[in-house]
Amino acid sequence: MFEHSRARGASYPCPRTSRGLCKELVKGWSSIDSSRFSIETVSGGITNLLLKVSVKGNNGNDSSVTVRLYGPNTDLVIDRKRELQAIPYLSAAGFGARLLGMFENGVVQSFIYARTLSPADMKEPKIAAEIAKELRKFHQVDIPGSKEPQLWNDIFKFLKKAAALKFEDNEQQKRYVKISFTEIQDEVKELKDLLDILHAPVVYAHNDLLSGNLMLNDLEGKLYFIDFEYGSYSYRGYDIANHFNEYAGFDCDFNLYPDKDAQYHFFRNYLHPDRPSEVQAQDMEVLYVETNTFRLASHIYWALWALIQAKVSPIDFDYLGYFFLRYGEYKKQRDSCFALAQSFLSGLRNG
Fold first, then answer.
1. Of the CATH numbers 3.30.160.70, 3.40.50.300, 3.30.70.60, 3.30.200.20, which one belongs to the domain with range 15-111?
2. Any idea what the Cα angle at residue 78 is, between residues 253 and 87, rounded to 5°?
3. What is the 3-state secondary structure (H, E, C) of 106-132?
4. What digits encode the pLDDT tens for the residues 291-347?
5. Gap between the Cα atoms of 111 and 99, Å rounded
6. How far apart are CA 166 and CA 178, in angstroms?
7. Mean pLDDT of the chain
8. What family is this (predicted)?
9. For residue 7, which of 26, 47, 216, 283 sits 20 to 30 Å off, Cα-Cα?
């Protein structure tokens, strides 16, 4: 049940200060008596704690907002400055909850009345099409500042931190010393060199589009992307591949990675949301090659992320095991993904 670790896990105290924050940041709440407030935990994990703060109205109905509090040591895996810079623009573009206010270690946002998707939901053709269309819109949001892709900077940053760890627990240390960081660095460099040749379009990417970060209001048919902690300028193929890897679900069954037909269904709706049937075969092939080569980068990213979490996370979870799982999947898929890209590039040179 690996993927739960990214969405929930650690228990946090319920902060009384949330009432004060909401009184200060939510319009019309400043004069409401504290006795009319209720607070409940929606989810909690290493990267944040999500609270639902509600106020009982005079008519007996509740009015609710969410308070997102950042967890401990998150600066090791998340660039909070980058996230906070992007949130107002993503909110203004209609993504996620509406931003109501920001404070030193979190944000206050509107409450989303929708259900969280399951991994199985994501591969349903109708829902997959909506995710693809929404992702295209997300990729078109303009976030001020540098438009340089951050994927490789983040991976090399993770690699440097992961290679310098030492575990107090003897069993953990024994497993850790079996890892060859020289091998991983060589793999990353070779993969980067190959992907650079593909010249994949750079977009503002979500970078963590697992089922837990997708919500659906079934009555309205409204899909929501949430949690932009890992968002950055990156490559469109990486963002899509990372999403496809999440089809593996909580049990990390990577055999559930979508086949070519399912991918092409997604690509049609991504490339031409209004008229999917009119997408050119050549455009789908390009995106197919991009996605299924960046698939490898996604495995390395989360493998290295897991090593850092193994050292700093308070969650009782086998992050070292998760590293070996993701890096093992990288090695399993490496040759076929490299061959796909190399064959495509060879065809371009000879065509």
1. 3.30.200.20
2. 105
3. EEEEECCCCEECCHHHHCCHHHHHHHH
4. 999 999 999 999 999 999 999 988 788 999 999 999 999 999 999 999 999 999 999
5. 10
6. 13
7. 90
8. Belongs to the choline/ethanolamine kinase family.
9. 26
Q: What is the mean pLDDT of residues 185-195?
A: 98
Predicted pLDDT at 21: 80
And the tokens for 350?
């000879």
- Kindly give, in sequence order, each residue whose CB lies less than 8 Å from that of residue 212, ignoring residues fewer than 6 positions away: 3, 6, 7, 116, 117, 227
For domain 116-350, give the fold: Aminoglycoside 3'-phosphotransferase; Chain: A, domain 2 (3.90.1200)
CB 87, CB 61: distance < 8 Å: no
Q: How many Cα neighbours within 13 Å face the side chain of 129?
A: 13
Phi, psi of 224 (to 5 degrees): -125, 135
The two three-digit tokens of residue 269, written as one number: 């709706």
Residue 152 has pLDDT above 70, yes or no: yes
Residues in the chain: 351
- Both tokens of residue 170? 């003897």
Domain ranges of the chain: 15-111, 116-350
Q: What is the mean pLDDT of residues 205-211?
A: 97
Question: Per DSSP, which regions of the chain are E strands?
Answer: 37-44, 48-56, 62-70, 99-103, 106-110, 115-116, 202-205, 214-217, 222-225, 232-235
Phi, psi of 291 (to 5 degrees): -60, -45
Query: Does pLDDT of 44 surpass 80?
Result: no
User: Cα–Cα distance between 146 and 156 in angstroms, integer?
Assistant: 19
Provide the phi-psi class of 227: left if phi over 0, else alpha when psi is between -120 and 50, else beta.
Answer: left
d(CA 139, CA 327): 28
DSSP class of residue 316? -
Q: How far apart are CA 166 and CA 151, in angstroms?
A: 25
Beta-bridged to residue 56, according to DSSP, are 62
Which of 16-30, 216-230, 237-251 is the least confident region? Answer: 16-30
Q: Which pair of tokens denotes residue 105?
A: 């270690």
- At 201 the three-state DSSP class reads coil
The rounded Cα 167 to chain-centroid distance in angstroms is 27
- In Å, how far are 198, 200, 280, 336, 345 from 349, measured between CA atoms? 12, 17, 20, 20, 6
